[in-house]
Amino acid sequence: MLLAGQAPSFAQTSSTWNNRQCAVVLTYDDAIDVDLDNAIPALDSVRLRGTFYLIGSSPVVTKRLPAWRQAAQRGHELGNHALMHPCDGTLPGRGFVTPDNDLSKYTVSRAVSEARVNNTLLKAIDGKTARTFAYPCGDLTIGGVKFYDQLKNDFVAARGVTGGLQKPAEVDLTNIDSYMINGQSGEYLIDLVKKAQQSHTLLVFLFHGVGGGHSLNVDLKAHRALLRYLKAHEKDIWVAPMVEVAEKIKAYQQGSTSK
């Protein structure tokens, strides 16, 4: 039984989630072959759409550009994961960062310019002007300055790497929470969705490899189980690309502040 005061809150949340219990966004990082070989065919087979965060300099963008264009035409979002995927090399566990792609050696203007160049590339592929950004390695700052502050007008929102389920009013559109998946079972993935359904929240999955292709990986069976569950419950769960969900959240938040 709902207590007084709970019903309006759920009604507003339900409206933001396209009159469903919750919203689920499936995101895939780094523009790798398995995106096109495994993830997109799996999504297309159940008519679900995801967001693919592309690194502009990835050779998989260059050599398979028509396939990315076809994915966009089928409704998948081509998100911006920066031109060179710069990460802060001063942080622990960052031995993979090269001097050329060390975010700590960037200026803010360089990071902003490279993100905008990647937007130009992505627009040339899909013809779209609205899209979202994903922070490489989840790094938000250069010398303590949040570089995305200069990019807010270039994107609908930006996705981070901190796990969490959030209601529309709680979402920070400059750093949206997401669950990074690496080796978890299909049961774990589905359980996260059930929690989002119960709490009427936003759930964002962050995948890299799907059936291989990356050191961070979800197995094909687990990924397939998640997609099957989402498809079977599509009357209760809104599954859409990040740009569409973020636009709904932005409208909700702007409406709330104007009241």
TrEMBL record:
Query: Cross-referenced InterPro entries, in alphabetical order?
Result: Glyco_hydro/deAcase_b/a-brl (IPR011330), NODB_dom (IPR002509), Polysacch_Deacetylase (IPR051398)
Q: Which residues form the NodB homology domain?
A: 22-240
Q: Note the PROSITE patterns from the entry.
A: NODB
Species assigned in the record:
Hymenobacter crusticola
Q: Which GO terms describe its biological process?
A: carbohydrate metabolic process
Keyword Cell inner membrane on entry:
no
Keywords assigned by UniProt, alphabetized: Signal
The protein's name is Chitooligosaccharide deacetylase
Molecular function terms, GO-annotated: hydrolase activity, acting on carbon-nitrogen (but not peptide) bonds
